[in-house]
Design goal:
Layout (H helix, E strand, L loop, with lengths): L2 E14 L2 E14 L3 E5 L6 H9 L6 E10 L8 E2 L5 H7 L4 E4 L3 H4 L6 H12 L5 H14 L16 H12 L6 E5 L7 H18 L2 E6 L2 H7 L2 E6 L2 E7 H7 L3 H9 L38 H5 L4
Helix pairs in contact: 4-5, 5-6, 6-7, 8-9
The structure holds adenosine-5'-triphosphate and magnesium ion (MG).
The site of magnesium ion (MG) has 3 residues, from helix 1.
Length: 309
């Protein structure tokens, strides 16, 4: 299918007093229409930095210091460069093209406004032709799709459980039929059972509505279950990119293997977990070679001297 978002030689830097933190380096990536792309990596590997740059959620001190991200609208209007979209273009595209679900629903939902108004506001802001009744009806359908009874539209977000808030936010992210939903650890705040339930609802909705997803998590085995393609990040760079099968069956990089054994699939018998020993690299003092080499059980002299990505 045609491309939806294309990142070329993308560099993202945090400009801080301590120095310029290279949190994303030389990212080349194409997200296709309707694709589920997983992004995995330990804490501080640059997952959120990348997602924010792709979704135009980036805030200072982060800057796009190199390369670009191009969005190809599905209405076949002209491609737009994400980082140079005007506020007005962004407002137009937010929810209708580029939508998102973050880790903390409460940071995105307004706790003191009833769900119904939050849905109808978003729907009618982007399509003033829609009547309040129709917007409300659509909101109810969306809630039902994530397993929340439509009458809960009358509730305030704070009256819902954490899992329900998260599901309500997923429903809201779909209110204007977006082309892509960016999800940054959308299920981290809920328990494992709820997590499974939410994931299967997301997959169900995706199959039905056809939007693309960029799904960020440190849990690689979860991504193996839901993604078409998976990116493995370390120290702000792509370590490996492949289909879920490729990553599962022949993920070659020792870091990928380390991540896999840190988060074994739920279907496997319970065993002792081994995290990856050591800590993520200091981005202000990255080694010359592979950033993972200092922690890698299989590092050779070449790994210390040369970087492949
Ligand atoms: P996590 O799994 O913990 O959410 P992540 O993979 O999303 O981690 P990022 O939040 O993208 O990681 O951070 C990547 C790097 O950028 C880290 O080294 C982090 O310290 C640095 N960083 C993030 N935000 C800022 C900021 N506002 N100022 C300076 N450095 C930052
Ligand atoms: Mg993050």
């Amino acid at each position: 299918s045609p491309p939806l978002l294309v990142a070329e030689n993308l560099d993202v830097t945090y400009v801080t007093e301590a120095g310029e933190v290279p949190a994303c380096r030389n990212v080349n990536l194409t997200l296709h229409r309707g694709e589920i792309l997983g992004v995995a990596g330990e804490s501080a590997s640059g997952k959120s930095t990348l997602l924010n740059a792709l979704a135009r959620l980036q805030r200072p001190p982060a800057i796009t210091s190199g390369g670009k991200v191009t969005f190809y609208p599905t209405d076949d209007s002209d491609p737009m460069e994400i980082s140079s979209m005007s506020e007005e273009e962004l407002r137009e595209r937010r929810w209708t093209s580029l939508s998102f679900v973050m880790q903390s629903a409460m940071a995105c939902l307004n706790p003191v406004i009833r769900l119904e108004s939050q849905f109808t506001d978003v729907i009618r802001e982007h399509d003033p032709e829609v009547s309040k009744e129709d917007a409300s009806k659509k909101a109810g359908e969306l809630l039902e799709m994530v397993g929340i009874p439509a009458h809960r539209l009358k509730a305030f977000p704070f009256q819902l459980s954490g899992g329900m808030q998260q599901r309500a936010l997923i429903a809201l992210s779909l209110a204007c039929d977006p082309d892509v939903v960016f999800m940054d650890e959308p299920t981290t705040a809920v328990d494992v059972i709820m997590q499974r339930q939410i994931l299967s609802q997301i997959l169900h909705l995706q199959a039905r509505l056809g939007f693309a997803i960029v799904f960020v998590t440190h849990d690689l085995s979860l991504l193996l279950e839901i993604s078409d393609r998976i990116v493995i990040m370390y120290g702000g760079r792509f370590v490996e990119v492949g289909s879920a099968e490729q990553i599962y069956e022949s993920g070659l990089h020792p870091y990928t293997r380390g991540l896999r054994s840190s988060f074994p699939p739920l279907s496997e018998p319970v065993r002792k977990l081994h995290g990856i020993p050591g800590t993520p690299p200091d981005l202000l003092g990255l080694p010359v070679g592979c950033a993972f080499a200092p922690r890698c059980p299989r590092a050779t002299q070449l790994c210390l001297e040369e970087r492949r990505n």
